[in-house]
Write a structure and sequence with these properties.
The complex is a heterodimer of chains A (about 280) and B (about 475). With about 280 residues, chain A is mainly α. Chain A has twelve helices and no strands. In chain B, about 50% of the residues lie in helices and about 15% in strands. In chain B, helix 7 packs across helix 15 and helix 9 crosses helix 10. Classes of the chains: A mainly alpha (about 280), B alpha/beta (about 475).
Chain lengths: ~280, ~475
């Protein structure tokens, strides 16, 4: 293979011969070494990636099997707990010779099991209402799972933090509220919206919306409306927001005027409404 | 004179091919890294976004699904049922019967209790005449509209659907695709978050389902396909959808939203004149025209992309069909690049003109010629006895290890994000495929591309070519 152009002479044969000579000196020099080095590097990267994938998948499949069993156990236990009459067993923890759907002490003390249990309680609560929801909430606090949520919200991992925010919202965890409120002005918009939703629910009021200094997009408006709709906020207070959001007319401009002002008795000025089909 | 030509030719291959390789390799690295950032960012967000709540939201942008149907009497009833089951409230389903010669229309009328309406729609985009618009008497099917029109091809059918639909966005999907039930709830996220910015179109990942378990129109379990050809395409799709498009979308320079699945802003599509019949790459051509329209009119816009597998389809599983598909893709690319050649290095189009268009031109269109030319040049040198074999093998090794490295990286990104392949053996099969691909598959793609160029420039093959598929394996 020829690589580098040398000074061209009259005869093409001479030229090719010269190139050949140049090339023959190249293969022993550093270029060949660099090419081989780069190839070796790519090979090592490929091998490491494959190894990482395989090990990761082995571990994941291994933990998935045990986690699936735990999830099934917890789901059975929680559904039974909500359906069957309450007895005197403290927090459903199994005593010796008791039925299968009881939890073992390890289930509520082991860090990993606790996390799964917390997640299952949270998932189940989303589908419940009324007395069963209250019963599940009581169980959550009875196990002290709010401490786990507290750890999650203090975590540096954004995913954990967001998950904690949703749990605070769902279970109304007062201990974490102050910490959650700090994120209302977070540059991460998803986190900020979760914090706002929490505060609306905690205060049972939409006053927090007047503290927001950024324009909200449709996604964020939807989230706020979703929270407000699911709550028992006094009608007089929510009317402004509901009228703005609930008409099906998306009107960010008018909404954002509301958000930048801090006065509570806000008079909104009508602007052109963008209609949706 | 002859010697001078030879001299320049040698120089061209020495420097030209070398710098071209460096350009392609470095651009792959940059694009892959940018894409990784976007995909990881999305998957982190995905777990906490709770799109389900959108179902009851008044903020949902309204969407029409336009599904062209031609001679599909066997599948039309099931396809409509599948579309009706999609989780989205503000949804309209428009089936465009493109002058089918079989009983497609009759099957739809009988099964969905349709009646002929006297509705008249404007022909904002020129298309073949509508013979009738049907709606259902049953309240459960109020979302459904069936349009019967004269035959005019897929692009024409979508244009008619665009004229008929009254929603903000429309989606065109291939009828042989399976959509994730929450696909639209996820796809509208960029629209809701866009604020004042006009979101012209949103695309998502199209994933392959060969040998997957499918139950009630839902993908249950994904496996590495048994067929080597299908497996290669899985790796190719990983590279394209996980390591390519997210990067372009992050720079608002995405030139292609897959024809199989994407949503488009109806207003803009009407303004730019709908799908172009004159190309087989009509999906890419439309996106390019939309880009031009927004940029020429100074509209703040985005062509967005969700790196989420929302649409599932079957890959061709024999070389003949695959070759036809790649031939068509090549012709489509050439046609689009030719139609919009004014974009090249044009400051009006910003990053599209300076980066995206030249990249498609150099790394997509010219690549097979440069590869084949380089190979030919080497053969001549080797025959003449001038080849420097140590360098040849070293460079071959470099290109091979790099390309396999990129493919394995794409598999890794899939594993750390969506992890659709649950068994270790599936992952190893994909890695094995990635190792073999440059040896026994890549030369074929080069050949198909060159054939596509030949067909384009000689006008040899203008159609789509017939696509045959084996069909999804379903569990009852």
């Amino acid at each position: 293979m020829l690589f580098f152009q040398g000074p061209y002479n009259k005869d093409v044969n001479e030229f090719v011969a010269q190139k050949l000579q140049e090339s023959s000196t190249i293969d022993s020099d550093k270029y060949l070494y660099y090419i081989l080095l780069a190839s070796a590097l790519f090979f090592c990267i490929s091998f490491s990636m494959t190894l990482y994938m395989v090990i990761r998948r082995f571990q994941k499949n291994k933990t998935k099997a045990t986690d699936d069993l735990l999830i099934e156990k917890y789901q059975n236990f929680l559904s039974n707990m909500l359906i069957l009459p309450v007895d005197n067993a403290f927090l459903g923890i199994k005593k010796t010779n008791e039925t299968e759907f009881r939890l073992s002490p390890e289930d509520v003390t082991n860090k990993h099991s606790r996390k799964i249990l917390l997640q299952e309680i949270y998932e189940l609560k989303k589908a419940l209402s009324g007395s069963q929801e209250s019963q599940l909430t009581n169980y959550f606090f009875g196990l002290g799972l709010q401490a786990e949520v507290f750890k999650m919200i203090k975590s540096r991992n954004l995913e954990k933090k967001m998950q904690a925010m949703k749990m605070i919202h769902s279970f109304n965890i007062i201990e974490c509220q102050e910490l959650a409120n700090q994120y209302i002005h977070s540059p991460n918009r998803d986190l900020a919206i979760l914090a706002i939703q929490n505060r609306i629910k905690f205060e049972n009021s939409i006053n927090v919306l007047y503290e927001i200094k950024v324009k909200l997009n449709d996604w964020e408006c939807h989230k706020i409306l979703f929270t407000v709709r699911s709550m028992n906020i006094p009608m007089a207070e929510t009317n402004i927001l509901i009228q703005e959001l609930n008409t099906g007319n998306i009107n960010l401009e008018r909404l954002s005027i509301g958000f930048v002002k801090k006065e509570k008795n806000l008079v909104l000025t009508p602007v052109t409404i963008k209609t949706t089909a | 004179m002859f010697s001078t030509v030879i001299s320049y030719l040698v120089s061209f291959f020495e420097y030209g091919v070398f710098f071209y390789c460096m350009f392609v390799l470095s651009s792959y690295v940059i694009i892959s890294l940018l894409s990784t950032r976007e995909v990881l960012k999305y998957t982190k967000r995905k777990s906490i976004l709770e799109h389900d709540s959108l179902i009851s939201s008044p903020y949902q942008p309204s969407i029409s699904i336009i599904a062209p149907a031609y001679n599909e009497s066997v599948t039309i009833v099931d396809n409509i049922r599948s579309l009706l089951s999609i989780h989205y409230s503000a949804l309209q389903i428009i089936i465009v019967n493109d002058g089918s010669k079989d009983e497609t229309l009759k099957m739809a009328i009988d099964n969905y209790d349709l009646y002929l309406t006297d509705e008249v729609y404007p022909t904002t985009i020129k298309a073949k005449p509508i013979r009738g618009v049907y709606r259902s008497r049953k309240k459960a099917f109020t979302k459904l509209i069936v349009v019967d029109k004269e035959n005019g091809g897929k692009a024409d059918a979508i244009n008619v659907g665009t004229n008929v639909c009254t929603t903000e966005y429309f989606a065109c999907i291939d009828v042989d695709c399976i959509l994730d039930q929450d696909a639209f709830l996820r796809l509208v996220e960029p629209i809701l978050k866009g604020g004042k910015k006009k979101i012209g179109a949103v695309g998502g990942i199209v994933w392959l389902t060969n040998d997957a378990d499918i139950k009630s129109g839902k993908v249950i379990k994904i496996r590495a396909p048994k067929s080597y050809i299908a497996r290669i395409q899985v790796v190719e799709y990983f590279r394209a959808f996980l390591l390519g498009r997210p990067a372009w979308a992050s720079q608002n320079a995405l030139l292609l939203i897959s024809g199989a699945f994407g949503i488009f802003d109806r207003e803009t599509v009407l303004a730019v004149g709908g799908y172009n019949h004159a190309t087989v790459g009509e999906d890419m051509e439309l996106v390019m025209r939309m880009h031009k329209y927004y940029r020429e009119n100074n509209i703040d816009y985005e062509i967005a992309y969700i790196p989420d597998p929302l649409c599932w389809t079957e890959a061709p599983s024999d070389y003949e069909v695959l070759g036809k598909q790649r031939n068509r893709w090549t012709r489509g690319t050439i046609e689009c690049l030719k139609f919009h050649k004014d974009m090249f290095m044009n400051p009006t189009y910003g990053v599209l003109g300076y980066v995206s268009y030249p990249y498609w031109l150099i790394a997509e269109w010219l690549a097979p010629f440069i590869e084949a030319g380089g190979l030919l040049f080497f053969i001549i040198i080797a025959v003449l006895g001038f080849a420097n074999w140590p360098f040849f093998f070293a460079l071959l090794l470099l290109v091979y290890t790099f390309s396999t490295c990129i493919s394995i990286y794409a598999i890794l990104i899939q594993e750390v994000t969506f992890a659709k392949y649950e068994s270790v053996s599936d992952l190893l099969k994909l890695v094995k495929t990635a190792l073999l691909e440059p040896i026994n598959y890549h030369p074929k793609t080069v050949m198909w591309s060159i054939k596509g160029n030949y067909d384009h420039f000689t006008g040899n093959n203008k159609g789509w070519g017939e696509m045959t598929r084996k069909g999804f394996k379903t569990e009852s």
